[in-house]
Structure formats: C-alpha cells, structure tokens
Design a protein that fits this description.
748 residues, alpha/beta, Rossmann fold, eight-stranded parallel β-sheet, 26 strands, 18% strand, binds 1-deoxynojirimycin
C-alpha cells in the first residue's frame, strides 16, 4: 500500500515538473562560450581519457606515485593534498605532459576554515548571522585557493535532530529554514560574488537524508518518506543549487532501501531534472563501493553501472569507474553518451574555475595569506557570536574590578587542538588561542590554573587541590565539554552527559562556595541538566576554533554581550531523542500531566494523563530551539500584522517594537514562527520563517518591519504538489521558539 502510494506521489511530482521546468539556464552560471569549450575538449577525448576525468583519488605522499596516472589522463581530481608545491607539480604534469593538458581539480575538506579555523558549522549556525558566515567561508576560500585548493567539500546541509550523531557538529542543526540560510551564505562565500581565482567550488553534501541515521549511529540507514524529504531535507539543497553551488556529494546512507549513490530518484529525477543541476556530482568516499556492502550491487562493475545510471559524475576512491566503465561501454551495458554527460559536468567546473588559465599558485605568496590579521578578526567575531549564554544568575559579566584571583580549571581550558573541533586538519595548534592563554593575558598575575582532569574522560573521586584553590579564588572559571575526537564523522555517542568526572568536578567546586562559571565546548548539545544547579552561569560554545579563547574571555568580561541562540533543541536526557521544535502534533498533546515522582503507588492506569509524554521526563526540552540569554533584556511589543486575510501573492507585513530594557547594549535575534493550523497533512506546530539580528543600545527601542511572502508558507501536501493551502495560520514573533503570544491570520 505504502509503495503504491509513493509511486502515485512520485508521478504527481513528475507531472508538476513536466509543466514547470524547461531547463533554460545553467544552475552553476555556465555560458555558451563555456559550453562550446566543453564540447571542443570532449570531442578530442578518448574513452579512457573520459573515464580518467571521472576518477578522484586521495593524494598520498610522493608526487611520483601519481605522475604516470596523471600523464595518462587517468585522474580528474585529487583530494587531500595541501602542499602548494606538490599541487603545482601535479598541475604541471597534467598541463604539460598529458595529451590534452586538462588541469586537475584539487579538493579538500575545508569545513570551517582552512588554517584560520572558525567555529564548527553548528556554532556558526548559532550566530544566526548569514553575512558573517559568508565572510567566514570567503576567508576559507582565500586561504584554500592561495595554496591551490579550488574545491571544498562543504557546506554540509544535513538536517540533524539526533545529537548522538557525531556529524551534527558539521551542519546547521535541526531546522530547515536556518540550514537553508546558512547553505546560501556558505555557497556565496566559498565561490565568491563571481568566480575568480580565489573561488573554491562549494560541494553541498550529503545528498540526502544522511543526518536522519537511525539511532544516531553514523552511516546507518534512513527511512524518510518522500514528503519528509521534500518538506524538510531537500529545501536547503535546492536553495544551494539555486545559489549556484557548483558541485554536490551523494551520501553514504540508504534511504528507504536505496543507497544515495545509486538513487535515480533523488539524483537524476530531482536534482538533475527538477532542479536542472548541471554541476558536478561526486560520490562520498567509496560510497560507490559500499553499495556492495549495502547489498545493492554484486561487485564493483555492477555498482559503477548503477552510479552512472543515477547520474553520478565522479567516483571518489572506489575506482569503480576507472576499472570497469570501459568494459561496460564496450559491451553495451552503458552508453558512452552517459559518460559524455558526466565529463561535461566535470569540465564545465574546471573551465569556470579558470583552472585552464590559472592552474598554478605562487606557493610563497600563498603562505602569507594564511592567518592574516583580518581572517583572525573574522574568526574572533564568529566565535563571539556563536556562543550561547544558557544560564546566568547575575555573575556574568564578571565585575573585573572586584576580582583579585581567578581559578581556571577543566580539561578544555587549555586544549588548543580540541577547541578547533572536528574537520580542522589544517588548523595548527600553535596558532590557536586557548581560554587559559587569553585569560592570562587579560588578567596578568591573577590566574591560577589547575586542570583537575587531564581529559574530558578522566575519572576521579577526589578534587582536593582544585577545591582548596577554589576557596582562595574570587571566581572559578571551569572549561568543560568534549574533545574534538568525540564528535564528527564516525563519532556517534549513546550517552550525552558530560563525560568522565566533569559533573563531579562541578559538584565539588560548588561546595567551595565561590561563584562558578562553566563554559562548555562541544560538538553537539550535551545533556547538562544535572550540571545546571552546580554553576552560576553557563556559556555554551560549540568548538569555537582558532580564536575561541579571546572570544570567550570577551564574553565573560562583558566586552561583548552574548547573542548566540541554540540551533538545535537541548535535551534533558538522551532518551528524549528525537525532540525538535517543529514536530507535528499528536492527537493527544501533552498538557503538563503528572510525572512519575508525583504518582501515588496506588494510581491506576487511567490516572496517568493519557497524553504524549514521558512519565519520567515530561515532553519538554532543557532549552528550546532559538534560545539564548543576553546580559541585557529585550521586550517585544505592539506586534501586529497589516491584514487579517491574505492572498497567496501577498506578503505578511509584520510590525513590532523591540526594546532593550536592560543595562547593556546588545543584539537580539528576532525570530518569526508560523503554524498552519489545518492542512491536507498534519503540519509542524511551529516553523521558523524569518530571523534577523538587531543591535540596540541599552534603553533603546526600535520599530521593526518584517516582510514574509505568503508563498513561503507553501509545502508539499497530500497531493504531492507544493502550494499554500488556504486556511487559518498563527504567527509568533519572539526571541526563541517557545516564547511569544500568537496572532492569527487567514490565507484565502
Ligand atoms: C567522507 C565524508 O563523509 C565526507 O563528508 C568527506 O567530504 C569525504 N570523506 C572526503 O574526505
């Protein structure tokens, strides 16, 4: 039944597509001149040379390892080479010694900065500042391209609603709208306003659904319906394609039984046909070969054929195309025209990046671009904006005048490598400024450092030294969390509490009777409910990168007022997974009924509420999506809509007054959420539709106008067609996803 239903749905989508999309324009900005050049090169290529372009290999050590293959035109792209001298030499061999002189596309996972490391993408999302994120991606492109890297495997657009999944660190969190805005910003930043020699081609990944891995276990299967794909997981990719993303990577997972690298429906039908994508599609590392492990193909020849049929252009590290395509073409199993299309997509990117004209870099000059002062400045600002103040009993900002001694403790206080986070291969720890270093500079002679735990995982039962030192100090700054290695690819966790004896350390410090400020650096939202009572303030910093130390010190001292907001729901306990703000509503919504501790032993079954919640943990998170405190307070007033009834072509014009009612200047992230009250499908209880950062001086008020096209309320409904369904809606304007009073409006 289910299958039939989806087939019907698919044909509805196809019908919609056929009357909508005639591919007239290149999504990556190609031109007739570029196309003519592509055809000229293609017409000169032998079958073997075409297959060579479709092969991507990982660089290993000596250039001579690949010299012969490059000469023969057997490699189209190399990843993981960062030495500009070697890159130049690879390019020289391709240009001067291969028959057609086609340059190499050199790729690297530059995920949140190349040398200058920015906060991990989850942290960048917490800034709710796409302009700054774009600037960060531009910085990464300047550093990467200066050393010959013209292709980055970023941004990762996987929506992630399960913090056990280690790769939540690499994306923008749980929300489709926030992810979309970050996707557009990063594509613009990497590629630049127009493509030139400082552009790195963006690679949007992982297509698609990878973040919905069952159980949060990396690489695991996903079972997303077509509707979930269309309404939740695909929009960031579609927006990135529209923003001109030049390349895309297929994901490792099988969704509903079909591994992405062989998934005709998502790659060919949706990406290529519906969206008209004419960029380059690359597999993930050996994801072609892994289709054999999935049980989706018999051998490399079989999976190479399946990947090509799905519309995948380049094979990363399976060598399936290199070893088998020639035979598959010769025996008629695949058409050479299919290869031609793949090669076109690859050549187009190389031409557009200007690699034929500028294959080499000036290695010496390139070195001076790394860690440029303005890059460090952008990294500092990014780390400041991405930290989230989760709790503050009034200890922050520190009253510096009254402080003579500070105890700094915890395994993350001086962990230069770990504060860089996952995927920071090229960030050097010598350039990283830790909180300890920044504090010692800021408070000379006043800082005592006792790590107490050598790593986040160390177990200890006694903390005598550090507690004694805490008694002597005016304030305790504890830097806790998880090392870089505990998040990222293949680093999923089943337990999300602070590891080792970190919670016990906080408990012991609390007993010393001095104010405790905890700063948590992590790759995911940890479950810190137990720790809240043991600190007077909590600053949460998703691994903040090179300039994390000074950024955190600027926040702690109040030089900068925290403005980050949670890009993902913070859970009370891991058993609540998945818990995200934009869920649909059950037939029995939770209304705060009795929890386990309040239930008398004699209670019968019917006295337990009969709604959707956990007896032991209720139904609410620790901190909702979009939440973050400031040293000041903001008041929302006079919120109104310009009309009660709208047409689909209208814009919702929202007016409000935002006031800074506290003592500090500060920035508020104003958020707008909408609920479609009744639909052909059950609809999310809230969906983010707009956000903006607003800076106000202490005591200042400002009238704001926000305009949201009614068309933004469209979704793929029961009939599989994207449209706005008429009816009643509610709208909230607030500082997080759980606040505010709704207004109503109707769409006719
Ligand atoms: C595997 C990862 O899944 C992907 O994100 C990355 O870009 C490639 N390896 C290349 O390193």
């Amino acid at each position: 039944m289910k299958r039939l239903h989806l087939i019907i749905l698919s044909s509805a989508f196809v019908a919609m597509v056929s009357c909508q999309s005639h591919k007239v324009e290149s999504t990556i900005g190609s031109s007739p001149e570029v196309e003519a050049r592509v055809e000229r090169i293609l017409s000169q290529m032998t079958l073997a040379e075409k297959i060579g372009q479709m092969n991507q290999v990982s660089a290993g050590g000596d250039v001579t390892n690949y010299a012969e293959a490059l000469r023969k035109g057997q490699i189209g792209s190399i990843l993981n080479e960062v030495d500009p001298e070697k890159i130049n030499e690879y390019q020289r061999i391709c240009i001067e010694e291969s028959r057609l002189g086609i340059p190499l596309l050199v790729a690297r996972d530059i995920i949140h900065g190349f040398h200058t490391i920015f906060p991990i993408p989850l942290g960048l999302a917490a800034s709710f500042d796409p302009d700054l994120v774009e600037q960060g991606a531009r910085t990464a492109a300047l550093e990467g391209s200066a050393q010959g890297i013209r292709w980055t495997f970023s941004p990762m657009l996987d929506i992630a609603r399960d913090p056990r999944w280690g790769r939540m660190a690499e994306g923008s969190g749980e929300d489709t709208f926030l992810d979309t805005k970050m996707a557009e910003a990063m594509v613009r930043g990497y590629q630049g306003a127009s493509i030139d020699t400082t552009s790195m081609a963006a690679c949007i990944k992982h297509f698609v659904g990878y973040g919905a891995a069952e159980g949060g276990r990396d690489y695991n299967s996903t079972n997303l319906t077509e509707r979930q794909l269309r309404n939740i997981y695909l929009p960031p990719f579609e927006a990135a394609v529209k923003s001109g993303a030049m390349t895309l990577m297929t994901s490792f997972n099988d969704n509903d039984g079909v591994p992405s690298t062989g998934n005709i429906f998502i790659v060919k039908d949706i990406l290529r046909e519906e969206w008209g994508f004419d960029g380059l599609v690359v597999t993930d590392w050996n994801s072609m070969g892994e289709m054999i492990n999935h049980g989706f193909g018999t051998d490399k020849k079989d999976v190479a054929k399946k990947a090509l049929e799905a519309g995948v252009d380049m094979d990363m590290m399976t060598f399936g195309y290199l070893s088998h395509l020639e035979e598959l073409v010769r025996n008629g199993s695949v058409k050479e025209a299919a290869l031609d299309q793949a090669v076109r997509n690859i050549l187009r990117v190389k031409i557009m990046l200007g690699l034929f004209e500028h294959p080499y870099v000036n290695a010496e000059a390139g070195k001076t671009v790394q860690y440029a002062p303005e890059h460090l400045e952008t990294a500092l600002k990014s780390a400041e904006e991405s930290a989230i103040l989760l709790k503050n009993d009034g200890i922050l900002p520190l009253n510096e005048e009254g402080i003579r001694s500070i105890l700094v403790t915890g395994p993350m206080a001086d962990a230069p490598h770990d504060q860089l986070g996952t995927w920071a291969f090229d960030g050097q720890k010598e350039h990283t400024v830790t909180p300890l270093k920044a504090l010692q500079e800021r408070f000379p002679g006043k800082v005592t450092f006792i790590p107490a735990l050598s790593s986040s995982r160390e177990r200890k039962t006694r903390f005598d030294d550090v507690v004694a030192a805490a008694r002597r100090a005016d304030v305790v700054l504890a830097f806790l969390g998880e090392e870089a290695i505990l998040s990222g690819e293949a680093h999923s966790l089943a337990d999300l509490n602070l590891k080792g004896s970190q919670s016990e350390l906080l408990e012991a410090l609390k007993l010393a009777g001095k104010p405790v400020v905890a700063t948590i650096m992590a790759g995911r939202p940890l479950t810190i409910e137990r720790d809240l009572p043991n600190c007077d303030a909590i600053l949460y910093s998703f691994h903040p990168g090179t300039m994390g130390g000074p950024a955190l010190v600027n926040l702690i001292t109040g030089d900068v007022n925290p403005s980050g907001k949670t890009p993902v729901t913070f859970l009370r306990t891991v058993g609540q997974v998945p818990l995200y703000y934009s869920h649909t509503m059950t037939g029995r919504p939770y209304n705060g009924e009795t929890l386990l501790d309040d239930i008398p032993p004699e209670a019968g079954q019917t006295s337990l509420g009969n709604t959707s919640y956990y007896l032991d943990y209720g139904a609410y998170p620790l901190f909702p999506f979009g939440f973050g405190l400031s040293y000041t307070s903001f008041d929302y007033s006079r919120i109104s809509l310009d009309k009660d009834v709208y047409d689909e072509g209208d814009c919702l014009e929202i007016s409000l007054t935002l006031s800074n009612t506290g003592k500090y200047d500060g920035t508020e992230v104003v958020q707008v959420y909408v609920r479609d009250m009744v639909g052909s499908l059950t609809r999310p209880v809230k969906e983010l539709k707009h956000f903006e950062r607003v800076y106000l001086k202490a005591g200042e008020s400002r009238d704001l106008r926000i305009s949201i096209p009614v068309s933004e309320l469209a979704f793929y409904g029961l009939d599989g067609i994207k449209k706005v369904e008429p009816g009643e809606f509610r709208i909230w304007v607030a500082g997080d996803s759980a606040s505010g009073e709704p207004l109503s409006f109707t769409v006719e």
